[in-house]
Amino acid sequence: MSRGIADDTTRLLPAATANLKGITTDYGAVEEATEDSLTSQDREEIEQSAKEDRPKRQIGVFSAVFMIFNRIIGTGIFATPGTILGFSGSVGLAMVMWVIGACIAAVGMHVYIIWGTALPHNGGEKNYLEHLFPRPKRLITCLYAANAVLLAYGAGNSLVFAEYSIASIAPSLLQAPSPTPRVFLGCSSVQLVAFACLTFVVLLHGLHIPAGLRLQNTLGMLKIGILLVVVGAGVQALKGDLQEGVERPGNFDSWTKIWDGSRGGSSVLCACLYNVIWSYVGFSNANYALSEMHNPGRTLRIAGPLAIITVTVFYLLCNIAYFSAASKEEITGSGRLVAALLFKNVWGEKTERVLNGFVALSALGNVLSVLFSQGRVNQSLGRERVLPFSKFWASSWPAKAPLAGLGLQWVTCNIVIFTLPPGDAYNFVINVISYPLAVINATISFGLVYLAWRASSSKTQAPPPPSSLPSTFNPPLTASLFIPALAFGFANVFLFLAPLMKPPPGVQPYERLPYWTHAVGGWAVFALGAVWWYISERRLRQLGRVVVVL
């Protein structure tokens, strides 16, 4: 047995300590284990698990940057600027909203860097919530598991990839034009291509991690190239070099013109800010794979800010490009992608088909990034024994990758793709996916402040803890922690309260369902997790045995 494996096994075996209750490792957590409770077979299984499932550290700064970049930038940058402009009423106010969104993303990234540096394990928010709420046992894990397992995170962009790849290659297969990247047409061709996309990504990440990372990084670089093309078209538009018959919009001709049409009102600004903040969601993506990073603390501290800065620069430059090529009325009233207007006004209508290909590739990069992280979350939940058939979901067979965990996400995504009709039902599922994340982000932000306050009030600082004993994590109460954590926490409180407020006319999320439906659905998902916790804990008590997570 190698020295590394021996050390890992020693941490897990009861011979090393009288009670390992609550210890978390890269392989999962030991819920409760004592010298008397483990048999020789248990010991062998733990040792074998440590040998087989040791994560291979193969993610560096470059890959971590693109994990975040691909997750944040999906297809929204090609359409959302038009929505923000419609809410705000002016180019200047729209740009201010994008800057505010960048600031919120920056403080959020800071919160995740603090947590990720302290608890450098796969699983992301699951680990942070378990640290904050160790009692009742496994309750918070079950609540999080319901959110991670039941919500089809990869379904939306898989359908976007299908729709826009078909529109680029064989548009005749589509039954209707697609005004936005979030419209589900119900076409069998779209469903089949989305199915193929999901299957390809799951097999790639589940059978050959390096190949999946290379493709993910390649698409990230290609996405940067696409955004540079958009920026280049904007430079051409700023020079006034537009297609014949297209009037120069002049949105930046004067300071007055920039702010002309600005709207006030809490409901309008809330709707605007709500959409902007969600456009930056995804900066936590690297935290789900910290066990596979080279020097995770250092990597996260470099990759996180670099990705946020890159995304922000591109967001602002793309907005300038869009506003330079089309008037406000054209952007808000055309019902088309804003990027499509840019391409049409600068290079002609035929280039719109090229843009469809760009959108499809951007969506594929997002699917790769989303499933890469969610597969690891599902595997981590399997190791915590909160899922049925946990040993199967926790497996790293056959390629030391979470193929089973990826397969679980594949199942939920395909259920959404093939069973939900277009319209309100599908929009509800897409919206309800985002809602619980705001609740979780608010919890870990305020929880970080609580831990720092508790450490400060005790007037005793614990020594730096070993990575396997995160229960002694007590961050110092400093301005660099307090201010970002509170700012990010209140921003997410806004995100989960805003859907409960009646939206302004013309921007209702559903045609027939109440506007608050997805908020209720998000809380219902957590409720299902609580029900599962009650059932599973009752079953364990009836069996009268402890749980050892490999």
TrEMBL record:
Q: Tell me yes or no: is Transmembrane among this UniProt entry's keywords.
A: yes
Superkingdom of this protein's organism: Eukaryota
Q: Which keywords does this chain's UniProt record carry?
A: Membrane, Transmembrane, Transmembrane helix
Region labeled Disordered — which residues? 33-52
Per the UniProt entry, what species is this protein from, by scientific name? Agrocybe pediades
One Pfam entry name:
AA_permease_2
Protein name (Swiss-Prot/TrEMBL): High affinity methionine permease
Q: Where, subcellularly, is it found?
A: Membrane
According to its record, how does it sit in the membrane? Multi-pass membrane protein
